[in-house]
């Protein structure tokens, strides 16, 4: 009996290692879409997003709700938000990948961003974090955006940078009223077993949780998209005028955990600034 338990535990650990290794060695894909179809949702991220689609079928889960004409999940290993200096790589840059998708006929009406984990491994300066986040937000433009906070724990230094990166995201919600944050940091903090052995990627259970999070965020951002594009009609005795308004509410900032303990915070999964 004891041997059977040990064997199952060993198999589970080996599978977890295999999943993380498969992602880390070069996984990446973008799900197909119909050009110029609307409304379109883009979920753009790194290897964690790729794994969420590959292992937990995130695209099918979100598309199954039937709200979006296009649901595109684009994940690539080692992808960063942007580069603070010129770089010709497309797959390694969220900004350039976004522009490439636009050129191919995808016009996102809303965007879920899951980037930043690779940036904190390479950069440590707040001004760099501000620059790359602004770069992507300005590239996306005035459509609803939900950005997942990050929690990378492979070293204490990188984990501390994750906290700083998240604080910059919070700060910039005041600058971008269309930006809402989803507190993935707290999801991981409340259950570290969702992380794979490398403390960067996720276990199979972690990917399932992440996929369900994408589904929930897709529903929420659809409501924001619908509100922003709904026409308001006013009628007078003389004539009828139609005015299109985009009432994206002002951002309300919040504070993420700043310690490096594993104590589960009491915040909800989604952090909305109007998640």
Which helices and strands occur, and which strands form pairs?
Blueprint: H1 2-24, E1 28-30, E2 40-45, H2 47-56, H3 58-63, E3 70-76, H4 94-103, E4 110-114, H5 117-122, H6 126-140, E5 145-148, H7 156-172, E6 179-182, H8 184-190, H9 204-229, E7 231-235, E8 240-244
Helix pairs in contact: 2-9, 4-6, 6-7
- What's the number of extended β-strand segments? 8
Helical segment count: 9
Under CATH, the topology can be stated as: Rossmann fold
Which class best fits the helix and strand makeup? alpha/beta
User: Which CATH architecture would you pick?
Assistant: 3-Layer(aba) Sandwich
Key words describing this protein structure:
single chain; 275 residues; Rossmann fold; 6-stranded mixed beta sheet; two-stranded antiparallel ribbon; 9 helices; disordered C terminus
Describe the structure.
- The structure is a single chain.
- The chain has helices at residues 2-24, 47-56, 58-63, 94-103, 117-122, 126-140, 156-172, 184-190, 204-229, and strands at 28-30, 40-45, 70-76, 110-114, 145-148, 179-182, 231-235, 240-244.
- It has 275 residues and is an alpha/beta fold.
- The chain has a six-stranded mixed beta sheet with strand order 1-3-2-4-5-6, sandwiched between helices.
- The longest helix is centred in the last third of the chain and has 26 residues, at 204-229.
- The chain is globular.
């Amino acid at each position: 009996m004891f041997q059977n338990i040990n064997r199952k535990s060993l198999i589970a650990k080996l599978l977890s290692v295999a999943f993380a290794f498969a992602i880390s060695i070069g996984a990446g894909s973008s799900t197909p879409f119909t050009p110029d179809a609307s409304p379109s949702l883009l979920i753009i991220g790194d290897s964690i997003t790729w794994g969420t689609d590959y292992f937990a079928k995130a695209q099918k889960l979100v598309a199954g709700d039937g709200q979006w004409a296009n649901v595109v999940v684009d994940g690539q290993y080692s992808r960063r938000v942007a580069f603070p200096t010129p770089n010709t790589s497309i797959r390694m840059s969220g900004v350039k990948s976004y522009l490439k998708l636009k050129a191919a006929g995808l016009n996102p009406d809303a965007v879920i961003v899951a980037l930043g984990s690779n940036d904190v491994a390479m950069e440590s300066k707040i001004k760099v974090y501000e620059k790359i986040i602004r770069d992507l937000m300005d590239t996306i433009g005035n459509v609803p955006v939900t950005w997942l906070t990050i929690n990378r724990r492979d070293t204490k230094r990188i984990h501390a940078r994750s906290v700083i990166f998240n604080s910059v995201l919070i700060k910039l919600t005041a600058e971008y009223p269309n930006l809402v944050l989803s507190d993935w940091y707290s999801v991981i903090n409340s259950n570290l077993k969702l992380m794979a052995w490398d403390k960067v990627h996720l276990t199979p259970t972690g990917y399932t949780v992440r996929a369900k999070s994408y589904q929930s965020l897709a529903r929420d951002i659809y409501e924001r998209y619908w509100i922003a594009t709904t026409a308001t009609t006013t009628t007078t005795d003389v004539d009828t005028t139609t005015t299109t308004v985009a009432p994206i509410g002002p951002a309300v900032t919040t504070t993420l955990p700043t310690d490096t303990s594993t104590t589960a915070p009491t915040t909800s999964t989604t952090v909305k600034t109007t998640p």
